[in-house]
Design goal:
By secondary structure, the protein is α+β, with helices and mostly antiparallel strands. Helix content is 31%, strand content 19%. The protein has one domain. The strands form 4 sheets. The protein has an 8-stranded mixed beta sheet with strand order 3-4-7-8-9-14-12-11, sandwiched between helices. The protein has a two-stranded antiparallel ribbon with strand order 1-2. A two-stranded antiparallel ribbon has the order 5-6. Helix 2 (68-82) packs across helix 8, helix 6 (211-227) crosses helix 9 and helix 7 (244-256) runs antiparallel to helix 8.
């Protein structure tokens, strides 16, 4: 048939529409297949660009049934990245290097207005942790002393330069609690520069564009200042999760494992990576594949040279201050939190055949 015939044009239009619906439109780091048995197209793992929902809640109830299968696959791929050596992670990622190639702290923690100043400025912010009970319960959650937590908050506020090129303030901000003695990062007020990408080309923004970069920069700076050691990161807490995609997946994980109610901190539900219960294991990977989970895991995957090869071993979820609430509770009344516990990988994958 000729291309100018009506039927052919309709068919081409339908195919084009289908392809556009499949291709991801959000800029971020492309991730290739992590193993032969996960033959899906490349997609973004570092979902930090979807975390800017600290103020506005898009939906009021936890009723949406989330696409768990997609999140499970994404979580498993991220697990492969975390569990691999630096070189193998690059191989898994389609040849694109995963390991960060610059010191994030040196970009954030500067106020000299010199040639390396990218426009970040430290500020104070209140309230911290949004009354989510994190500091009060930090000892019970991780064994850390809350008095050892220092809150660091940086905002992209002024013009700067990168390699002699002008960069513009995006209004992005990163506010996280850093507890070096306890090995804890508390993710609190964070907003990526996603909205600024429609006004400026990516090359015109600071190199700190993702939560995993900013959080690691703050952690490395303060952990080295206090302990002269940034490798002992053991936990990340996501304080008051407002991202709707993550909230939906939390509800699905609870429902899939037989939990009819949102738990409180005392009866918080923990999903383990190595669980022999398939439902729990799938729930773990689904949570790891959420925007909040993926950005946490990507922090580990992209800083192996400094932190060693670690991965998420378990994920706990709870509501503050009350548990025992219906999964259909109006989410404006909730403050859901997540605890990601890390484990060291003793036998990282290398990409080489066994016995070679």
């Amino acid at each position: 048939m000729a291309l100018h015939e009506p039927g052919v044009r309709v068919m081409m239009l339908l195919l084009t529409t289908l392809l556009i619906g499949i291709i991801p439109t959000t800029w971020s780091r492309a991730i290739g297949p992590s193993s032969e048995d996960l033959a899906l197209s490349a997609f973004s793992l570092d979902a930090n660009l979807d975390l800017g929902q600290n103020v506005t809640v898009r939906h009021s109830q936890l009723r949406k049934r989330a696409p768990s299968e997609q999140a499970i696959v994404k979580g498993r791929r991220l697990d492969c990245l975390m569990s691999a050596t630096v070189d193998h992670a690059t191989q898994i990622n389609g040849g694109v290097r995963v390991e960060e190639s610059f010191d994030e702290w040196n970009i954030l923690i500067t106020d000299d207005r010199g040639p390396d100043d990218e426009g970040w400025r430290e500020q104070d912010v209140t309230p911290k942790y949004q009354s989510s009970g994190i500091q009060a319960n930090l000892g019970a959650l991780t064994g850390a002393d809350p008095e050892d937590t220092t809150y660091l908050y940086y905002i992209s506020q002024e013009m700067g330069t990168v390699d002699g090129n002008t960069v513009y303030p995006s209004g992005a901000y990163w506010g996280n609690g850093i507890n070096p003695q306890g090995g804890v990062i508390i993710a609190d007020w964070n907003r990526s520069p996603r909205y600024a990408l429609s006004d400026f080309p990516i090359s015109s923004l600071s190199r700190i564009r993702q939560w995993s970069q900013a959080a690691w920069g703050e952690w490395e700076y303060w952990a080295n200042a206090v302990l002269d050691n940034s490798g002992d990161l053991r936990y990340v807490i996501r304080s008051w999760v407002t991202n709707t995609a993550t909230q939906d997946q939390i509800v699905e994980a609870l429902r899939a494992t037989g939990n009819d109610l949102l738990p409180g901190i005392r009866d918080r539900v923990t999903f383990n990576r190595n669980s022999e219960d398939p439902a729990e294991a799938n729930a773990f990977y689904a949570l790891l594949g959420t925007p909040n989970g993926a950005s946490t895991g990507y922090l580990l995957a992209s800083h192996k040279g400094k932190i060693g090869i670690k991965r998420v071993g378990s994920i706990s979820v709870w509501n503050h201050p009350f548990g025992g609430l219906s999964l259909y509770t109006d989410r404006r009344d909730l403050k859901i939190n997540m605890l990601f516990s890390f484990e060291r990988v003793t036998n990282p994958t290398t990409g080489e055949p066994e016995g070679s």
